[in-house]
Amino acid sequence: MAYIEPAPIKDKENPLESMMERFNIAAEKLGLSEEVYNVLKNPAKQVIVSLPITMDNGKIKVFEGIRVVHSNILGPAKGGIRFAPDVHIDEVRALAAWMTWKCAVVDIPYGGGKGGVRCNPREMSPGEIERLVRAYTLAMIDVFGPDKDIPAPDMGTGPREMAWLMDEYSKAKGTTVNAVVTGKPLVLGGSLGRTEATGRGVMVSALAAMEKLKINPFQATCAVQGFGNVGSWASALLEERGLKVVAVSDISGAYYNANGIDIQKAIAYRDGNKGVLEGFDGAEKLSDPLGLLELKVDLLVPAAVEDVITKANVDKINARLIVEGANGPTSFNADKIINEKGIMVVPDILANAGGVTVSYFEWVQNRLGYKWTAERVNRRSDRIMKEAFDQVYKTSVKHEVPMRIAAYIVAIDKVAQTYQFRGGF
Ligand SMILES: NC(=O)C1=CN([C@@H]2O[C@H](COP(=O)(O)OP(=O)(O)OC[C@H]3O[C@@H](n4cnc5c(N)ncnc54)[C@H](OP(=O)(O)O)[C@@H]3O)[C@@H](O)[C@H]2O)C=CC1
Ligand SMILES: O=C(O)CCC(=O)C(=O)O
Fold it and tell me: I want to staple 18 with a disulfide (CB 3.0 to 4.6 A). Which of 195, 306, 332, 413 is the partner?
């Protein structure tokens, strides 16, 4: 099987710089005080650890593990853990700050954090991954905690890794602490609805934006980059709401069918094919996987990695609407051209906030010692996503700025007000 390694991203820009450029614009629009600006531009805590792991061949390999807490002014830090070969401190800093803004946009009582381990989980056995998760957890034992910093899944991690993290943390503390991590398997206190939550939030945001643009979902086409947790759930739920998903992709390539891809068939194929779409016969494989981003569709959902829409390809983007399932898929340099082209973008810190919203519900349920029904979880998260969309849309109209800057304005304003009331510096 031919994998594209490393990730096929051209012209990768620095996600931290992209984040700061937007932050600067919103801070200026808001007239943010210099003191609060200086607090928010720096992460509150950054921890880098070395993790020596015995590999299956008996050799010891040392991995680098990172956790960054950008802010805990609104509550404990919250954010996923990424296992990927190109994890970098600047990327984790940007991802942690995006979590601060994201939690503020959807108005949940958390600050922002993010973690990462530079590794390639595709080349590791389950035993090696388990040892790595446990070593990372122990190294972060004083960082994590249900009232301090609560991790969750991100790229390359899922419920299995969260279960090991909870177990290791609980053993170290001498008691079961399920609220230390979210995105757990149901039987360990995971929430109904968490697995699909990010994709579901993407769908809710997309439908809200399509209403503003007067696009009828039953006549709309869609392309989705990334067919992991976020991309596959977003594809399935958008298809369920009437859209024709004409293209999907993963690390093995991009797959196109003008008549619409049968998403359930694609998911079943992926699940029976070691997690990849390679060889899927319900669509044609595109010669250039990045061609998916340039298709003439109503809706484009980048749901894989950062910086896939950059100044190198932004001129060729043909979608009417972009809803960002991934964190940071559009570089700062591409923003201006997208705006000039009149393409509406529902930004990551709004569009993919459904995941952390249901993570919050999971933490609430763990602390209550009670389980909500899927119906309650979905109804509440849909309402939060829709309200956040409406607030960002109104702010965008009021300040005459794109939705992305509007989302930053909403978030930074909330965090700045909290600083003003709490004081203490
Ligand atoms: N999980 C969550 O709840 C949340 C995730 N996000 C963000 O969404 C994005 C995706 O995360 P998630 O779905 O959890 O991760 P997964 O690991 O589940 O899936 C990632 C998907 O992207 C594919 N992929 C990786 N690199 C490329 C590439 N260069 N080109 C095309 N496809 C690629 C992967 O392919 P393959 O599997 O073949 O390697 C896989 O299909 C990330 O930016 C993440 O930060 C945001 C909010 C919450
Ligand atoms: O569910 C969470 O707590 C965080 C998910 C995440 O990492 C993200 O939204 O980017």
Answer: 332
ipTM comes to: 0.98
Q: Which of 12, 29, 59, 114 is catalytic?
A: 114
- CA separation for the pair 50, 122 (Å, rounded): 20
Domain C-terminal end among 351, 369, 388: 351
Provide the residue range defining the domain that includes 208. Answer: 196-351
Q: Is the pLDDT of residue 94 over 80?
A: yes
Closest CA to 339 of 327, 351, 322: 322
> Ligand 2: which residues within 6 Å by Cβ?
78-80, 102, 152, 154, 182-183, 327, 352, 355-356, 359
Residue 283 in any domain: the answer is yes
Q: What's the Cα-to-Cα distance from 244 to each of 105, 170, 235, 277, rounded to whole Å?
A: 30, 45, 9, 19
**Minimum mean pLDDT range among 15-19, 78-82, 177-181:** 15-19
In-domain check, residue 291: yes
Domain count, the chain: 2
